Amino acid sequence: MPNIKIFSGRSHLDLSQKIADRLGLELGKVVTKKFSNQETCVEIGESVRGEDVYIIQSGCGEINDSLIELLIMINACKIASASRVTAVIPCFPYAQQDKKDKSRTPISAKLVANMLSIAGADHIITMDLHASQIQGFFDIPVDNLYAEPTVLKWIRENISEWKNCTIVSPDAGGAKRVTSIADQLNMDFALIHKERTKANEVDCMVLVGDVNDRAAILVDDMADTCGTICLAADKLLSVGATRVYAILTHGIFSGRAISHINTACFEAVVVTNTIPQENNMKHCSKIQVIDISMFLAEAIRRTHNGESVSYLFSHVPL
């Protein structure tokens, strides 16, 4: 693959290395440091003139630092005469703030989109956006990949009685995602209607559907404090579910999330590695990780070669 350079920010070096290894490339040289006043400084250590540049940085860890680092790396490559700069953002930062749901609140996802465009990004590759309309916040191409093919594969390979399971969405917003998976597996689906008193606090839950004498598989795009998904698991057991699994694309697991999972009734909590999970796995044996580096690597390869990326929406790359 000539005329291509891949650089990694500091948020998820392990994933970046897996992507580079799959493409048979070396990660580009980049030095990132902070001055004593905490300003971020980035030095690109090799020529990018005329190159097709891909910068991998996930929205995790110190999210604000990761975002600023990404913006500076994009700008550094752009003013160093890179022909195209693509930001590969496995977990899009501020994606939960995608609409104005009350007075005087910002649409921060739109602000991040503007910042990426102004920094010089020509293309965005991301995975399972919290809301698909975030793609419309950009005036540049956005490829929103889906973890769904790997979810289908994991269910078939790891749940012996999967044909007698029910796919459950923990909220109404995830109904489309759940029905798509249920249709492809020819399974029943259900959803949980929840009412919130305030952010991250759920007042009550109502199950719409049937999980009696069946294993239930909760599917969502992200879990932050895990309060909602743990309450959903308790609700499913109370109405007759035999076992409960959770499958999530982005395992943010902030605050007391790990202790919530440890005390909850999950058989397994399955997440992708859009966010590093090594430390979480040490403290919680229920967490299992699906590697999605092959999706991002194949998306980079196809983008660089001018091929269609839509194949990845329904197939796991070999």
From TrEMBL:
Transmembrane segments: none annotated. SUPFAM superfamilies: PRTase-like (SSF53271). Pathway: Metabolic intermediate biosynthesis; 5-phospho-alpha-D-ribose 1-diphosphate biosynthesis; 5-phospho-alpha-D-ribose 1-diphosphate from D-ribose 5-phosphate (route I): step 1/1. Pfam families: Pribosyl_synth (PF14572), Pribosyltran_N (PF13793). It is an enzyme of class 2 (transferase). Its EC number is 2.7.6.1. Residues 4-120 form the Ribose-phosphate pyrophosphokinase N-terminal domain. Keywords: ATP-binding, Kinase, Magnesium, Metal-binding, Nucleotide biosynthesis, Nucleotide-binding, Transferase. InterPro entries: PRib_PP_synth_CS (IPR000842), Pribosyltran_N (IPR029099), PRTase-like (IPR029057), PRTase_dom (IPR000836), Rib-P_diPkinase (IPR005946). The keyword Membrane does not apply. Homodimer. The active form is probably a hexamer composed of 3 homodimers. NCBIfam families: PRK01259.1, ribP_PPkin. Catalyzes the synthesis of phosphoribosylpyrophosphate (PRPP) that is essential for nucleotide synthesis. PANTHER family: RIBOSE-PHOSPHATE DIPHOSPHOKINASE FAMILY MEMBER (PTHR10210), RIBOSE-PHOSPHATE PYROPHOSPHOKINASE 3 (PTHR10210:SF112). Belongs to the ribose-phosphate pyrophosphokinase family. This is ribose-phosphate diphosphokinase. It comes from Saguinus oedipus. The gene is PRPS1L1.
